Structure formats: C-alpha cells, structure tokens
Amino acid sequence: MKFIKITYLTITVMMNCIFAVLLILSSYAYLISPVKMMFPSYLGLAFPVFLFANVLFIVFWLLQRRWLFCLSLITLFICFPEVKLYIPLHRGEEVTITGDSLVILSYNVECFQGLKPHLDNKPNEILEYIANSGADIICMQEFAFGRDKSIISEVQINQALKDYPYHYFSDKSKNPYSGSGIACYSKYPIIEVQEIVYESVYNSSYLYRIQYKGRELTVVNNHLESNKFTLGDRALYRRMLKHFEPELIGEFKNRLVPKLDIAYIQRSVQAEKVSHAIRKEGDNNIIVCGDFNDTPQSYVYHKIRGKLKDAYVETGFGPGITYHKNGFLFRIDHILYSGDFHAVTTEIGKLKNSDHYPLKATFVWNDTITSFD
Predict the structure, then answer these.
(1) Sign of CA dihedral 106, 268, 111, 218
(2) More confidently predicted of 306 and 3
(3) Where in the chain is the domain with CATH 3.60.10.10?
(4) For the segment 91-138, what is each residue's pLDDT rounded down to a tens digit?
C-alpha cells in the first residue's frame, strides 16, 4: 500500500510539473513568429487548458494540505501578464467626466445573417442592434449586401444607419451582384482613408482619420485571415470535443492542421503590416479594432498591440468570449488604443445572430477627467 501511495504521489507531481511548464511555454509562445516555427502558436491556443489545469492542481494540493500547491502558484506568478490578458478581473470604475465620451463598436456581422433584408415590419436584428447601439464610430467586418430586392441592400443599411452620415466601404468581392468587405460608419467626418496593403483574397485592414469635435483621431479597422473551416471541419472539431477518439486525431491533423498552419502564417505577415502602419502614427490618438482571428496569447495580437492598451483588459471581467459558434469559444475581437484616451467600460453584447458577439468600448479624454472614485 505504501509503494502504491508513493507512486501515485510521484505521478501527480510529474503531471503538475508538465502542466506548469506547458503553461509557461504557452504564455510566451507569442515571442516566436509562426513564419519561423509553427508549434508555439498551437501552444498559445491551448493556453486556457493549461491555465485551468494549474488552477486545479492548486486546489488539489490545498485539499491534500501539501505545500506542493506552491508549484502552480509560482507558475501563475511567472505567467501573470498573460493570465491578466486572458481573464481580467475589473469590476468597473467611477470617473467624473467634464467633457464628451467616445463610443466605439467593433462587430463582425457575418454578412448580416446571410443577407437577411431589413424591412419595417421585419427588421434585420443585427442592423437594428447596430442602429440602437449608441456608438459614435462603428467598424464592421464581413460587411455585405446584395443588389437583389430579396436580400439586404446598401440602401437599407444606409437608411437604418442614417445617424452615421460619414461612411466608407471597401469592396473585396468585385462583382456586380453583391458587395462584401469591411466598413466604417461614423457620426463625425472621415477626412482620410488609407488601405494597409497586404496579400489576401477576402480580408483587409483600413486606416481612417476622423475629425471629432476639434480633435483628430485615427481608427484602424481589421479583418485578418480566417482559418476557412468548412461545415465538415467544424463538425469534426465538435466530435472531438464530445468524443475524444484516437482515430479522430489523424483526421484532425490531415484536415484542419494544414488550414491552421496557412492561416497562422498569413495572419502573422498581415499583423506585421498593420503594426508598421500603427507605429508610423507615433503618439497620435489611435484606436485599433476588429476581428483579428487570434487570441490574446498569439503572435498576431502582441505584434499589433505593441505598446497599445486593450480596452477589454483595462475594464473587462472574465475571459470575454467574442466568437461563439461550433464549439469554438475564443476572444478574437479586440479594441486597442493609445494617446489621450482613457477606457471606461467595455461591453460584449449577447446577440447571437452572427458567429461573433459585438464588442463596444466607451472612452473619455484624459483632459476631461477630473477625478476617480
């Protein structure tokens, strides 16, 4: 009995050490570009699993009344910057504001529910939500419309968003029957538009200069490369979550991993282009938002973020899932900022008509804050 007990303890300690090392590696996997080495990107994707395992080990050792809980506790301390990125624990703050606030909405609208029309008696729920969001500037990804009366039209969208007279749409579809790409709708004048040029068939990033009540700000709207999973690929992933069968691993490797590899490399190159454009702006008031298709533990996120702040990390609570379909539950939509802004709140809407939740952040200008409570 004593031999079995010692063996059990040894195996548990070894498992704890393995998961501690994996958490550290996944926390700092973003330091290596997928172009140079692919494996760290997958470690970063698995960060939540390794984090949860280490928390379980802390609880386990505390229940056993053993000092070994310090192993995972020290690991969490080493990985604290990434733990904070993944699961911020802000309860909000009270500020006294003497000026205007600025509300930014970033939303991957997934072609407005399959191009569902927006009618007076039967509105398009996504478009209705956006129109009533109270945002000052709206950045949309997978923005799409058709030129047939049976589907949503650009006229319907513009009419619903009539409070946003300034808008710019970048059409990636290049066909006479429909339009799709990314779009920015603003209550304030868009005085300049620049494309951040990189190679992609469907995805893009644009920089907008906006005049806001005597101040100039720069907004960068991004929709970086997706993994392009088919319905069959997603069904395979769901089967793996429900029934972890050995034969599914080979199928996953052959079908999904090549797509993930290509997307990781493409996004990393795109992120470097976006990062370069952001750095050229210097200390200007800048907001970078959109669908990054990558988590806060990724090379892409860290490359784009640089010294910018993350509105959700600064004000949010919990993991903040923004993508919610087919068993994939990740925060891949982000709002970053720098300059004279101060993030007050960040909200993740719960409208499920798109595969993404809307992400909305409220900012104030530092010179309009008189006190914190």
Answers:
(1) positive
(2) 306
(3) 96-230+236-372
(4) 766 666 656 899 999 999 999 998 999 998 899 999 999 999 999 999
Which of the four CATH numbers 3.40.309.10, 3.40.190.10, 3.60.10.10, 3.40.50.720 does domain 96-230+236-372 have?
A: 3.60.10.10
What confidence tens digit (pLDDT) does each residue in 216-249 have? 999 999 999 998 777 676 776 667 656 666 666 6
Residue written as token pair 């795109």: 270
- Packing angle, helices 2-27 and 69-78, rounded to 10: 0
Contact assessment for residue 168 and residue 206, using Cβ atoms and an 8 Å cutoff: yes
359-365 and 369-372 beta bridge pairing? unpaired
CB 290 within 8 Å of CB 205: yes
Number of H helices, E strands in the chain: 13, 14
CB-based contact 54:76 (threshold 8 Å) = yes
What kind and span of H or E run contains 351? Answer: none
Tell me how far apart the alpha carbons of residues 322 and 108 are, in angstroms, rounded to a whole number: 10
Nearest to 72 by CA among 16, 11, 8: 16
Give the whole-angstrom CA distance, residue 303 versus residue 33: 9
For residue range 135-148, what is the model confidence (pLDDT) as tens digits? Answer: 999 999 999 999 88
CB neighbourhood size of 16 (10 A)? 22
Q: Which two tokens stand for residue 243?
A: 């029934």
Helix ranges restricted to H, the chain: 2-27, 39-45, 47-63, 69-78, 80-86, 110-115, 125-131, 154-160, 231-242, 246-255, 257-280, 299-305, 311-315
Q: How many CA atoms lie within 13 A of 158 on its CB side?
A: 8
Residue owning tokens 């699993």:
49
| Contact yes or no for 99/340 (Cβ under 8 A) | no
For residues 299 and 171, give the distance between their C-alpha atoms in angstroms, rounded to a whole number.
28
**pLDDT mean over 204-226:** 95
pLDDT over 50 (residue 1): no
CA 287, CA 264: separation in Å to the nearest integer?
24
Read off the DSSP letter of residue 95. Answer: E
Closest alpha carbon to 72 in 57, 82, 60: 57
